[in-house]
Structure formats: structure tokens, C-alpha cells
Amino acid sequence: MKKLFFSISFLIFCLYGCYIGKPLKTKSTMYINFSTETKVYSSFDGKYAKETSWSDYKNAFTQGMKSESGYYNLEVVEDEKVKTDFTLDITKFYVSETSSTETVNDAASPYNGKSFQLSGCSANATFVLYTGKKEKMLGEWFSSAIKDEKITNNRNFGDFVLGSNKDNSQYRYKELDDNICTTLSEKCGKHVIAKLTRKIAKNQK
Questions:
Q1: Phi, psi dihedral angles at 108 (to 5 degrees)
Q2: Phi, psi of 74, deg, nearest 5
């Protein structure tokens, strides 16, 4: 049991540890450059990712980087002419929505064999970090934030009120928030900062 506890704890640490940055020893500045425009990829019947909202996703992604950087002694500078300690080059940023089919496999449920069409959304970024004004390349990395619709047979508030689905035989799919792509874009920006501050802090040792 103790080994299982430590194994689960280690798994959780690895899962969330990659989203936690490391404060820099000295306050540093960084300029963010976008090499390409934001792209939106969505299936024909997509519900969440909208091509017309690409600027909203880019702004949320940028805001995520700016808000997160302050926690790690890193300041984002928006003026390209200002000398900075680092330059972050976003070589690719895109929002994607895909669809998949999942079938209920529960012989005790009247929904057994029923298929649900589910959507999955993600915000993804490839980025390169340089010292100064692209004087020396420190590395290239990838970060993302993902959220999928899911099938569930858990009782919801309505079930408790009506006293229904006590045997958990009723299945439904949980939709995502309408603004999920904006939320994921901001979260992806935060993941970018978390990853690069760990890389910078490692080089500062």
C-alpha cells in the first residue's frame, strides 16, 4: 500500500511538475516575438474552435505568458527596441479541435452500444529561447494545454433532485465551456513560461 501511495504521488508530481516554473535568481527581461500568425484547425462540425477568434486566442496566449512571468522574476517587454536579457520566439501557435467516437460498454445500461461524438480541444506552442536579441539559442521546446469532452454515468444535480440514475446506468457526455479554446490558450501561455524559466534557472546555476 505504501509503495502504491508513493507511486501515485510521484506520478502526480511528474504530471503537474512540468507546469511549475522556477524563479530566476536575478530579475530578468524578455521580449516575445511571433514568427507566424495564429492558426486554427477544426473539424467540419467543430463546436468550439473558431477561425474568426484567432486574435482572441493569441491575446489570451500572450496574456497567459505575461501574467505567469511575474511569479518567476521575469518581466515581459513589449517594445522591440528595448534591450532585454532574453528573446522568446514563438515559431508556431495554433488552436485545434478534433472529434472522435466513443461507445458505451456497459451491459447493465440501456445505453450499452450507444456511440457519442466527442470533441477534443488543444492550444499548442513551439518556441525558441535566445539570450539577448537572438544572440545565442538556448533551446527549442513545445507546450500545450488540452481538454476533451467525456462520457459519464455519474449522477448530476438533477439526478439527486429527482432521485434518478441511482444505479449509474444513464450515460451522457459532458460538454466543454463555450470559451474553452480561449481558456486553453491562456493556460498554454502559462505552461510556456513555466518550462522556459526552469531552463533559464538551470543555466544560471
A1: -85, -5
A2: -125, 130
Rounded Cα distance between 61 and 145, Å, is 11
Buried-state track 179-189, b at ≥16 Cβ within 10 A, e below 16: ebbbbbbbbbb
CA atoms within 13 A on the CB side of 50: 10
Q: How far is CA 18 from the centre of its chain?
A: 12
Q: Please give the Cα distance from 121 to 96 (Å, whole number).
A: 6
d(CA 79, CA 101) in angstroms, rounded, equals 46
- Report whether 137 contacts 128 (CB < 8 A): yes
112 in any annotated domain: no
Query: Domain of 28: which CATH number?
Result: 3.30.160.180
- pLDDT tens digits, residue range 65-84? 999 999 999 999 988 999 99
- Residue 23, Cβ density class (10 Å: 0-12 exposed, 13-18 middle, ≥19 buried): exposed
Q: Which grid coordinates are listed for 28?
A: 530578468
Q: How many CB atoms lie within 10 A of CB 61?
A: 28
Q: pLDDT digit string (tens) for 166-186?
A: 888 888 888 999 999 999 999
Is 8 domain-assigned? no
> If we measure between CA atoms, which residue out of 25, 152, 138 comes closest to residue 86?
138
What is the number of domains present in the chain? 1
